[in-house]
Design goal:
heterodimer, A: about 375 residues, alpha/beta, eight-stranded mixed sheet, 12 strands, about 20% strand, B: about 350 residues, four-stranded antiparallel sheet, 13 helices
Chain lengths: ~375, ~350
């Protein structure tokens, strides 16, 4: 299948008084139609800047996309003029932001905000767009949508506002939706509602999603493929199942063992990643993760590894690490032992599977 | 599996029911903190000059629990359920509307200003946002040294030495005393907040979402630090958080709050493996687990709707508007907070799987 989106060698930089911040530094990935891709990383790793670059929403100055191409449906977004980009934004590519309070306009009614895109992109008239707006609100399960369509954002709760954002993103039947931490500001039961909604929409409309988050739990249940980002670069990419079953980058190992799991059986000690993420103005010369990596060797400091396929893994599994590449010193390292006892993990898995199957009552 | 685990507790259930709610706060001598019938209402007023009260936000509405010496009690719930208010009302940062808070045998709600101030030496707080809770115009040395002076614990050279020692304890360089908070990262700032809380050698620390403002890889550093310090100084924690995985990791016992009430309180393993209250069950099922194979098999309980307003909470059981088990009685009678199994309390008419 042809890829819907093809990003290659994207470089986005911010020119500040202190120097050039290399926020996104040579990122290449594809998204197929109808696919959900997860981008995982900590704050400052460049995941949000990647999303904003796709929509050409980087504030300029100080930011600038200095290199690369973003092919969407056969056209390069970076070569378009501003009018053409505006025609795509909200129409073919839509975005859901983290904080629904700051991304909705507080002085406009919900109906005004959703119908704006409908009138602009789909050339609907007032009554048509109003009808469609109500349909959209019903689609995202807002109760008594007909009455609430004329409410203002402050009259909605956090979860409801996020539903409004999703309705807005869906309004023009986009082919791709970028969801930037869509549930981070929400409570856990509301997060479950929103994730469930997104999953159903992705299935129903065959919309491609890029789900950006720091929560490995969220991507585990939602995505088909995952990119792990660190310091402006993709350090590992693989199928979701493959990534969790067979991670091949020490940073991914670090992420997996630094968070307690709901289904861990005993109080295992957490192993944090020591130190702090690097300064992106003057990043380390070699591997960006080298200063925090417990497996580092001299070569890591001297030369940066490429994102390459690694042995003993599925074909599209790539990692940026000298150690796990062919001939590296981490090829045979059992990551399960690195993050905890193997038997223990298997035991927990079986236990939770049976517990949740028998104990959890249905709706 | 659920049936077999519940079977042994089914027989003595009657007996436990009769012991009723008072046992949730029974003073066995091991308890450092006893909270009973604690209420914290915030008045809602109308009018400009003559303000009259038109209602109240019932942030905490009658809760009972105890904290044993040396243990960590986790307090979980969604935003607006009253968990932070509970923490603050215990430390008397708010004056509770009703109820009693006993700390090591002393009733706090009736203590005078000076006595309370002396009491505060023994109970400290770690705040959520390390950017907002440190004064940007004070050096780290002054921030950590201030409680030492306030409580007349150390002065001059002794104070400086103590501050340096504290910095070392929380894993910072002792020569950082002359730096300002903006020179530190979020995780380092949270360490400064921890050092400040430790300065007066407290027995009890209320940690209010101490890691939720931090990045994933930094969170583990702070959790480990809190655990180490607990072992080293024999601290007792009330750990308030919304992240159930973190609470499970750090707590000995866990209390689940919903709309101003504790709906379930149990030992960690009991609560996570045999939750009795439907809200706890829904909450646990909603937490994503970082493993696709587990995620696929899990059944998720998706609650409908939002948390109702604490100004006008639902009648009867407060959860009945969102509960899939709700019957007539749930909207009429507020369920008692009952010990259904040893050390496992829940407030529900239809508890269990």
């Amino acid at each position: 299948m042809a890829d819907l989106l093809e990003v290659s060698d994207l470089h986005t930089q911010f020119f500040t008084r202190d120097g050039v911040v290399r926020a996104v530094d040579g990122v290449t990935f594809q998204v197929a139609a109808g696919e959900t891709l997860g981008i995982v990383g900590e704050s400052g790793c460049g995941k949000s800047v990647t999303a904003l670059s796709l929509m050409r929403l980087i504030p300029q100055p100080p930011g600038k996309i200095v290199k690369g191409s973003i092919m969407f449906d056969g056209q390069d977004i970076l070569k378009m003029d501003d009018d053409d980009v505006r025609g795509i934004r909200g129409n073919n590519i839509a975005m859901i932001f983290q904080d629904p309070m700051t991304s909705l306009n507080p002085v406009l009614t919900i109906s005004r905000q959703i119908s704006e895109a409908l009138e602009l992109h789909l050339k609907m008239d007032k009554s048509e767009s109003r009808k469609r707006t109500i349909e959209l609100l019903e689609l995202v399960n807002i109760p008594s949508a007909k009455k609430r369509v004329d409410d203002y954002p402050h009259q909605f709760s956090g979860g409801m506002r996020q539903r409004v954002m999703i309705a807005m993103a869906l309004s023009c039947n986009p082919k791709l939706i970028l969801a930037d931490e869509p549930t981070t500001a929400l409570d856990v039961t509301i997060q479950a509602q929103i994730l469930d909604l997104l999953k159903n929409l992705a299935r129903e409309f065959r919309t491609a999603f890029i789900l950006i988050t720091h929560d490995l739990g969220v991507v585990a249940g939602m995505t088909q493929r995952i990119n792990v980002m660190y310091a402006g670069r993709i350090v590992e990419k693989a199928d979701t199942g493959e990534l969790f079953a067979n991670p091949k980058h020490p940073y991914t190992w670090g992420l997996l063992r630094s968070i307690p799991r709901l289904d861990e059986s005993r109080k295992a000690k957490l192993v944090p990643i020591e130190g702090l993420p690097p300064d992106l103005i003057a990043p380390p010369p070699g591997c960006k993760f080298e200063p925090r990596c417990q497996y580092r060797r001299d070569v890591c400091r001297e030369k940066e590894p490429e994102l390459v396929h690694i042995p003993n893994a599925k074909s599209d599994h790539e990692s940026r690490c000298w150690g796990t590449q062919a001939g590296g010193w981490l090829v045979d390292t059992d990551w399960r032992r690195e993050i905890g006892d193997t038997r223990l993990i298997e035991a927990i898995k079986q236990e939770t599977a049976s517990v949740t199957a028998t104990e959890t009552p249905g709706e | 599996m659920a049936m077999t685990t519940n079977a042994p507790t089914a027989a003595p259930k009657e007996e436990f029911v009769q012991r009723s709610r008072s046992t949730a706060t029974a003073d066995s001598g091991k308890n450092l903190l006893n909270v009973s019938a604690l209420k914290m209402h915030f008045p809602l007023t109308q009018g400009i000059i003559f303000q009259r009260q038109v209602g109240a936000v019932r942030a905490v509405d009658g809760i009972d629990f105890f904290v044993e010496k040396g243990e960590t009690l986790g307090l979980v719930g969604e935003s607006g359920c009253g968990k932070s208010t509970t923490g603050r009302a215990i430390l008397q940062l708010y004056k509770p509307t009703a109820g009693s808070v006993k700390f090591d045998g002393t009733e706090l709600t009736t203590l005078g200003g000076e006595q309370m101030r002396r009491m505060r030496r023994r109970m400290q707080m770690i705040f959520q946002d390390p950017y907002a809770s440190l004064n940007p115009r004070m050096t780290v040395g002054n921030i950590i040294g201030e409680p030492l002076e306030v409580h007349n614990l150390a002065k001059g050279r002794a104070k400086t030495e103590r501050v340096q020692e504290l910095l070392k304890v929380v894993g910072l360089n002792p020569y950082f005393t002359n730096r300002y908070p903006h020179e530190f990262s979020g995780g380092q700032r949270q360490r400064i907040g921890v050092a400040r809380a430790l300065a007066v050698e407290p027995d009890f620390i209320v940690a209010d979402e101490p890691i939720s403002a931090l990045d994933v890889s930094i969170q583990a550093q702070i959790i480990n630090l809190l655990e180490e310090l607990q072992d080293k100084f024999n601290l007792t924690y009330l750990f308030i958080a919304h992240d159930l995985s973190v609470v499970r990791h750090i707590s000995d016992r866990v209390a689940v709050m919903y709309l101003g009430k504790i709906v379930e309180l149990a030992d960690r393993v009991d609560l996570y493996e045999r939750p009795l209250h439907p809200y706890s069950q829904a909450l646990l099922s909603a937490v994503p687990i970082p493993d696709p194979s587990v995620e696929q098999k899990r059944k998720r309980i998706i609650l409908t709707g939002d948390v109702p307003s604490p100004v006008n909470p639902p009648s009867g059981c407060r959860f009945h508007t969102r509960c899939w088990k709700a019957q007539q009685i749930c909207s009429e009678v507020d369920p008692e907070f009952i010990e259904h199994a040893p050390r496992h309390w829940a407030a529900c008419h239809f508890p269990g799987a």
